[in-house]
Fold:
Amino acid sequence: MGSVRQKGMSKTKTVTLPYDKSAQFTIKKASNRDDVERSNLFSKMRMIQNLGTPDGLITERDIPNGELQLATIMMCLVGWNLEDDKGRVFEINEENVLELLTAAERRQLYSEILDFNPIWKGEDEGKDDSEEN
Structure:
């Protein structure tokens, strides 16, 4: 008997940030595709000859932290209840994330996403009892 799997199933979790208790954000576990896409953000690197040792190379990477945060949020933010004064929920897109969230909210949301996706923090993935389907 083989290992039974389903496509398209993603664990989600709704979080509330300490800055506005009425605002709710639904985040998802990153897919394999998300992981590859995020890993590609780290692909810009250069090898530099270490002058102290002729055979030694130094690897340098330039990763703009703000771009990494925004890309990660856009990969994993699947819902929110942020609405305009007429009760219409704003579309989730980069522009609205940058316009509607404060810097502190953006950083906290990024932190929540990393906590929900421990592989991106260099930790083993484990089952989180707070996960929802």
Summary: Residues 44 and 62 are 7 Å apart (CA to CA). The first helix runs from residue 32 to 40. Residues 128-133 have pLDDT under 50 and may be disordered. Strands lie at 12-16, 24-28, 45-49, 57-61, 77-80.
